[in-house]
Amino acid sequence: MKLASKASSRQRTTVKMRLRLFIKPLLRLSLPQILLFTTLLLVLLGIRQVTLTSFREHFTVLAPNAIYLDAQTLKPHEQERLNQQGIEVSTDRNRLFFAQRDYDQVRDLPLVKQALPAETTRYILDANGNELQLSLAQNQLPPVFQRYRSFATAPSQLNFGFQSLQVPPTQLKAYNPQNIQLISGHYPSAANELLVPDFFNAAYDHGDRAARSVQLPVLTAKGQRRMRTYQISGTYRTDHRTSLWAEQQIGPKRVFALYLPYHPEDPLKTLRTQATYQNFRQSFATNQATKDYSQKLVGSYAAYLKSIGIGKTGMLVVTRDAAAVPKVSQQLAKLYPQYLQISRYAQTHGELARTYWLLLLIVVVTTLLVMGALLLSLIGSDRHYLRRYQAELASLVGLASYRVQLKKIMTWLLVSQLTIIYLGTQGLLALVQWQVLGRLRLSQYFTQLFTWSDQGLIALIMLTILIVVVCWGRSYLDRVGVSGRVDKEKTS
Q1: pTM of the predicted protein model
Q2: Do residues 397 and 49 touch, judged by C-beta distance below 8 A?
Q3: First and final CA of the chain: distance in angstroms?
Q4: Shortest CA distance to 389 belongs to which of 410, 408, 358, 370?
Q5: 41, HSE (Cβ side, Cα atoms, 13 Å)
Q6: Per DSSP, what are the bridge partners of residue 248?
Q7: What is the distance between the alpha carbons of residues 267 and 261, in angstroms, rounded to a whole number?
């Protein structure tokens, strides 16, 4: 009678009320999962940024319809071939720098729109030879900065430095080596104009965002400290609300750049001197193989003058559209078979494509390993807990009226658990970035934690885990139901 009474009471109790007993314990299981998820995701995202993201940044500075060539950057296998022969150079036998005829020749290709010299020299002195001497203490920043997540982890000193644009503003749409994102105003053109970070006026002028001129401390060419007035031409985007650690490096200091106008360089005056010629001859005389190889380049002063061209090592090729890049790449490979091409197309189809696919494979394998570890951990902990109630679940699944409802509730329960784990992981990631990573050099490997790219990858991982876990939960109930019926048959 007692057994019959217990069975009757179990049937009268609703499934929802009974499964409420599972919710709190299952949610308690989420805490170690949040810690594990956060740790593994940090490992994955760090590896991704160090490998694939860093590699891609070399190509994203170019527009989809742009190709960059450097007369002193050979294809990896060409450089390796020379090194195996004992030849210690990084150029071919035809030129040290591009000549005007090279630009004209490329410009005449049918699908080419422009072929331009593209040096990437940057200067840290203004037009008068002044060096910026500006730094701001963290505790001197205005109160508005204290509301930013970046404030608690900001360095004790925020350093600023002059830095010239590396290419003319007209070329920045095609080639932007400094990754400048203009958000207001215009690029500097006059000698006393500056492009400043988006937070500069708020930090330096304590909130006067409309300021168009600013006085800055500089060190003159004669070593004197002076205040000089500059005009602010515009502002560029930074991630200052998340991090106040500068990415630019000038000497031993990390600095936020105040961009000066593009400084056109005419190196021919220096290159054509006998002293420079002798320096090149000496640099190519490290061994007999290198000396023999470089005879066409520096064997005589006349040969040297021919090899230096117009003194520009870089060539920016702008095609009519992105669809023309593969064809133009083939044409350039015929003209300059030894030079490495840099373009978005070359990222996946050029000399460095093998590196790209290898890095992508590393990221994919790491993602699968992380996903597998998270799945095993989550399913293992949930199964260990649910086994305590296996007999009770078997009796409920055995009732046709409860089976469908029980599966729905199990799905809801697992979705709720994964949602809490996801939100908890996001909160812990933010806390770790705010309180830990910002104080360490490792922070440079986690600058994109909350970008669309990294967040999309996290969402994809969580969605995949959710689908697998829900399928496992529903199949687990089926297996419990089968085992329950077998036990009943054995008992009867």
Answers
A1: 0.76
A2: no
A3: 17
A4: 410
A5: 30
A6: 255
A7: 18
- Give the residue-averaged pLDDT of 111-134: 88
CA distance 394 to 424: 32
The type of residue at 127 is A
In angstroms, the Cα distances linking 19 to 14, 28, 393, 411, 478 are 9, 15, 10, 12, 17
Closest by CA to 262, choosing from 177, 200, 338, is: 177
Buried b / exposed e over 436-474, threshold 16 CB at 10 Å, is ebbeeeebebbbbbbeeebeebbeebbeebbeebbebbe
Highest mean pLDDT among 187-201, 240-254, 439-453, 478-492: 187-201
* Rg (the chain; Cα; Å): 32
Structure tokens at 1: 């009678």
3-state secondary structure of 378: helix
The token duo for 405 is 């409802």
Mean pLDDT on 390-395: 56
C-alpha dihedral (93, 99, 103, 109), degrees to nearest 10: -50
- Helical ranges in 387-439 per DSSP H: 390-397, 400-435
Q: Position of tokens 């290898």?
A: 358
